[in-house]
What does this fold into?
Amino acid sequence: MNISLKYTGAKVSASDISDSMASEAGRRAKELGINDAKFYTSDLESVTGSYDTVTCVDVAIHYPTEKMTEMINHLCSLSTDRVFFSFAPKTWYYVALKKVGEMFPGPSKTTRAYLHEEEVVRQALKNAGFEITRDEMTGTNFYFSRLFEARRV
Amino acid sequence: MKQFSLLLTVILASSASAFVPPSQPTSSSSALFSNAVDDKTEVREYFNTEGFNRWNKIYSESDDVNKVQLDIRTGHDMTIQKILNWVQVDGDIQGKTVCDCGCGVGSLAIPLAQMGEFFNSPCSLRMIASMVLGSLGGILPGNLFDIFDISGCRCNIPTCFSPFSCLHSRNKTKFYI
It folds into this structure.
């Protein structure tokens, strides 16, 4: 008897602003035998549809402060139930560390990095009709990420 | 302060950091007035070129990363794992629709698509077969595992008790009974 297993996890639709990234994600998924997940190229604002859960993890560091509320509102509008959202929190320590990092640019350059006020994120989720149900903070030496799970009220 | 000095030392010794400045030399004041379109263009270009090569390595098992990049990999993995743990505790992700915005190389999207795999995976079947046969006779036939084509299963039986440790054996596997 020949049994071919299929994955039975979430029905995933995933996008990235970078075509290279989205293609690589699709390649990795296929390599692992996932054939029903969708990977495509799109910036965040152009994503449409209605989903049980919307995730946006470690992306907000590329988003300028003044765009945060609008961005969170859009993410929430795509979700019927839950949102996972993470961001680098703007605390005095991380602001200082960022400044120190900027003083010593190495040969490797990257994009601008934006830290965000936790209160702004909380307020944006609330205004979009969501309440925070779980939260976490992950910090290593060079990685800082505040994580919220929010559910539609 | 000692910790801060240590961080400074590491930054100086490293060629990359999560917080290094933009590819175009800009002062902090001009960054304040940058608009979202410029940011978006910059992010898109970066992650289609140099940034793709760098982050594709960071978000993989590649050894070709420096200490800072390794630290970022570890941190990012921790965040992903926390989400997966929440989802696992809730236990109702199967069949639900998920939209992952900014998926990168799929480090969250892929395990979410795989969740529920555990009870169907060759790893868990091997474990269950061992337990059942062991309880029946106490002795496992030496060729038991030859019955299954388990080439896609790289983890050993004890680690299979954790659903997520099974996630690295992600090949859609055909096996024979």
In short: The longest strand of chain A covers residues 130-139. Residues 1-5 of chain A have pLDDT under 50 and may be disordered.
